[in-house]
Write a structure and sequence with these properties.
The protein is built from 1 helix and no strands. It has about 40 residues and is mainly α.
């Protein structure tokens, strides 16, 4: 039981890290698009 709990916890941590990285990439992409759009409007 201890081993399966540890592997579940490990997967949970990996999923959290992947989610944060994806979220950060999406925010960066949106910020880049917004800045490019504002720059073009000016």
């Amino acid at each position: 039981m201890s081993a399966s709990y540890e592997s579940w916890f490990g997967l949970s941590c990996i999923n959290t890290i992947i989610y944060r990285c994806d979220h950060l990439s999406i925010r960066t992409l949106i910020d880049t698009i917004v800045r490019a759009t504002i720059g073009n409007d000016r």
